[in-house]
Amino acid sequence: MPTASLNSPLSYLGVLSMLAGFFLLLAGFNVIKVEKITVRAGRVTLGFGFIFIVMGILFLLPEIRAIFPQKETAVSEFDNGVTAIYIDLANDLPSSVSNAEYMDITESRIEIVDKNNLRFELKVNQDIPSVLGDRHFYAWFLDTDLNSNTGQQHGGIGSDYNVQVTYEPNLGWTGQVFDISKNSKVTVTSIDVSKNTVSITIPLSLIGSASKFDWVVRDQDSGNTYLDKVPNDWYVHTELP
Across residues 83-111, what is the average pLDDT? Predict the structure, then answer.
């Protein structure tokens, strides 16, 4: 059963404020006899009484909330459809690797569009040029069997599916989902590359209708060498409701 306690100076101030407010109310209503309280003064006293009571309630709000704690919401309940967000440091891509800040991934997220579709999104440290001189891609590597010894090796996981947004000079931006075990790919048209944001929406069936998976994000330019990786030294685990 919830119990009340005073745990801060503000809560004591709240109690004193409410007591003063009740006293002023009683005086204003003439319940308590106070000399030289005229009708006009009584109205003023009532006003101050209400003010002190409201102040007391505001001071005591944290204690009142503590008596009736709200239900805790687990991260896995996916507020607003977001399953996972990972923020990465900007400017963590060494110049020896690449000077292109649009290859420096600063954030990645996965969202539930509906029960059949997922949206993958990432942000980079600079707006992506509308025209690139050669092939580039951004990819989410998904380990759906949670076994790092199967699939492609990518920083602690073994990806079974790769969700990729690719730029080719003659084609522009396209989307693909690669099934590693079948050595096959499916083209996805629901992609968007705008300013510093890349996104792709795919049917859940294209990743084996997986309900949970580990994932990392990587990108690559024409050098065929992976540049940035998010997270830098591990992976993110996601479970769908």
Answer: 70
Q: How far is 219 from 221, CA to CA, in rounded Å?
A: 7
Q: Given CATH 3.50.50.60, say whether it is the number of domain 75-239.
A: no
Whole-number Å distance between alpha carbons of 94 and 101: 10
Helices then strands, counting H and E runs in the chain, come out as 2, 14
Query: Which neighbouring-strand residues pair with 118?
Result: 112, 202
H or E element: which one contains 212? strand 212-220
> Mean pLDDT of all residues in the chain?
79
3-state secondary structure of 42: helix
Query: Residue 2 and residue 65: Cα distance in Å, rounded?
Result: 10
pLDDT at 205: 97
Residue 221 is predicted with a pLDDT of 85
Contact 189, 206 (CB under 8 A): no
Q: ω into residue 69 within 30 of 0, thus cis?
A: no
Domain ranges within the chain, ordered by starting residue = 9-67, 75-239
Residue 220 · residue 137 · CB < 8 Å: yes
